[in-house]
UniProtKB/TrEMBL annotation:
Full protein name: Putative mobilization protein, MobE
Organism domain of life: Bacteria
Residues that span the membrane, as ranges: 113-135, 155-181, 193-211
Natural source organism: Pseudomonas migulae
Organism phylogeny: Bacteria, Pseudomonadati, Pseudomonadota, Gammaproteobacteria, Pseudomonadales
Keywords from the UniProt entry: Membrane, Plasmid, Transmembrane, Transmembrane helix
Amino acid sequence: MDDIESSFKALLGRQPSDKEVERLYRVKNALNIRDNDAMWMILMALESYDTLYSKYPALIAGQVDVVIEKQRELIAEIVDAESKKALSTLSSAVAQTSQLVAMKVADTARWQAWGWVCVGLIAFGALCLTAGFILGSGNMPFWASTHQSSNPLEIVISILMKAPVGWLVPLISSAVVIVTLASNRQVRINKPIIISLIMMVVLSIFCIHTII
């Protein structure tokens, strides 16, 4: 190894590659530089800088790839977290809606049950009141004397509905129908409840007709 290569090695801090030495001598021969020319110091310095800076693009590209990969992973984590959050929120909303619908259905069924129980109790009370009046006085009650009909069932219903408590049947039936429809404006009413509502409406109309 000559003095030029030794100086170049000392400048680089490592053994120069064959390509670097070849490029250095190619410049020397092209410019016809002597071995003791001071231009060598400048050429070796420039060559060392070229060798050093030629590595930067690859290093920068590598770091860019690392940063991009980290950003991709971070974005993926954020998207995954937001997706899970959205799914959790959606599941919670669906659960709350389902619970609300279930509560409305249960309340509707409860109102229907209470309505029919009240109607049954009122009819039973009217029957007991009518029977008690007949047994006590030996005569038909005064509220049954004005009805004109040949249908026995209609006569019995008319007597019960015209009893002092009978007017509560259409009142309670109408109230149950109104409350049920009002509380289920945004919920689809199932078929059994619809049938029950229709029966209550028909019962209310029939009771009002018999009372009048």
